[in-house]
Specification:
Length: 443
């Protein structure tokens, strides 16, 4: 209310004051409005943030390996076991007192909503959380894991609690993508509503066709994703973010069950080239350009991010990895949902007074190479700053977990590169037409 009054008062003076006074009042009013738009901090003219005891900070970010649905190492692992693994590891790694956790918010897309809510509650108990710590789910399609983190960050900022966990889980082995039930006949009255029903692969074709994203450009991005992920795995770049999962696997032929430890992503195809990808057929449109090789993989996995108020973390001597600086979700045409990051990234940058060149690294979810290529080109991002350890085309895309997974990958890579104050953005497109983006600053 105060901001509106100041702005209106400034407008009244502008009509009657000399030019110099008018400019001064307008400047003051714009500063008041700008500083009130993002409660997580606004960068100064030098692109730097000021630390505050009220900052929301990240204490840990971890993930399971991401494995292929149906055929991968976690295909026989239940959703509650997956989420339990990352919740337990996150608490141990962050050194937070489990009794201080105010809430656990878990992103999940494909699991039956009421059943998945129970499964993540069970996962909390399997991870050793007391019954007093609540758990809930959130579903914003592919950004669900990031939305979970944003919900926790907002709750801490609002004073609901001092510490919480944003997480995500998906087992696309157990819960494949499908439409359940019938269709509302009223959908026919709205083109936008109709476009919500377009298969995701067709939206990829729409983006490629509208903006001229060639098959070669898409295959080039896909080959680069696999090459970077293979190099990251070989050189141990994922070691600080991946936690091993102790699980069981049953041989379908013999019925023998054995204990196994899954510790690496298994969707990465080392040696993938543009030439080998060019041999794959388009699968969503005759004569199209989206193939199984330049689209994200169907995967299983989970991830978790521990967030807290800075004053709480410092009072308890907890390690601070990064500071949460902002989050934005922006809607777009469902028929070209893949362009979402091209809208969300500028919005979150504007909220914190930064530009695309102020960002050191981007984790841009590769739902499809078509839309990821479009976003990079549209925003004129430096490819050497985008998905430096590969993306979902190589690693996989367990829908509800991806947002939190991207946060873990981004934070640990920024810290590996050294130097406080580095800025990173996590962003992804969202089925039914939207984009989300979050910005973090390394401590």
């Amino acid at each position: 209310i105060l901001v509106v009054v100041v702005a209106q008062f400034a407008g009244y003076i502008v009509m009657s004051a000399p030019d110099a006074s008018r400019r001064r009042v307008a400047t003051i009013a714009s500063h008041v409005v700008t500083q009130s738009t993002n409660t997580f901090g606004v960068a100064n003219s030098a692109g730097k943030f000021t630390k505050s005891p009220d900052d929301v900070v990240i204490l840990d970010a971890c993930r399971t390996p991401i494995t292929r649905a149906k055929r991968g190492g976690l295909a026989q692992t239940c959703a509650d076991d997956l989420i339990a693994a990352v919740l337990q590891a996150a608490v141990v790694r962050s050194k937070v007192n489990v009794h201080d956790i105010g809430d656990i918010v878990v992103g999940s897309v494909l699991g039956n909503s009421s059943q998945r809510a129970n499964e993540v509650r069970i996962g909390g108990f399997l991870a050793g959380f007391p019954k007093e710590v609540p758990v809930r789910t959130v579903n914003r399609q592919c950004s669900s894991g990031l939305q979970a983190c944003a919900d926790v960050a907002a709750s801490i900022k609002a004073g609901y609690y001092e510490c919480g966990i944003g997480a995500g889980v998906e087992t696309m082995t157990a819960n494949p993508m499908k439409w359940e039930g019938g269709f509302n006949p009223r959908v026919a009255s709205s083109l936008d509503a109709q476009n919500c029903l377009i298969p995701m692969g067709v939206t990829s074709e729409n983006v490629a066709e509208r903006w001229g994203i060639t098959r070669e450009a898409q295959d080039t991005m896909a080959a680069r994703s696999h090459a970077r992920a293979a190099n990251a795995r070989a050189t141990g770049r994922f070691k600080n973010e991946i936690i091993p999962v102790f699980t069981k696997q049953t041989d379908p032929k013999t019925g023998e069950t054995r204990d196994v430890v899954v510790s690496e992503d298994d969707g990465i195809r080392e040696g993938t080239t543009v030439e080998s990808l060019a041999k794959l057929p388009a699968v969503f449109k005759k004569g199209g350009s989206t193939t199984p090789g330049n689209a994200s993989q169907v995967s299983d996995g989970a991830a978790a991010v521990v967030l807290a108020r800075r004053s709480y973390a410092e009072a308890h001597g907890l390690p601070i990895l990064a500071t949460w600086r902002g989050f934005v979700a922006v809607g777009c045409d469902p028929a070209i949902m893949g362009i979402g990051p091209a809208l969300a990234i500028p919005a979150v940058l504007k909220a914190v007074n930064l530009s695309v060149n102020d960002v050191d690294l981007y984790e841009l979810n590769e739902a499809f190479a078509s839309q990821a290529t479009y976003c990079v080109e549209k925003l004129q991002l430096d490819p050497e700053r985008v998905n430096v350890n590969g993306g979902a085309i190589a690693l996989g895309h367990p829908l509800g977990a991806t947002g939190a997974r991207c946060m873990a990958t981004l934070i640990h890579e920024l810290r590996r590169r050294g130097g406080s104050g580095k800025i990173g953005i996590t962003s992804m497109c969202i089925g039914s037409g939207a984009g989300a983006a979050a910005i973090t600053e390394i401590e």
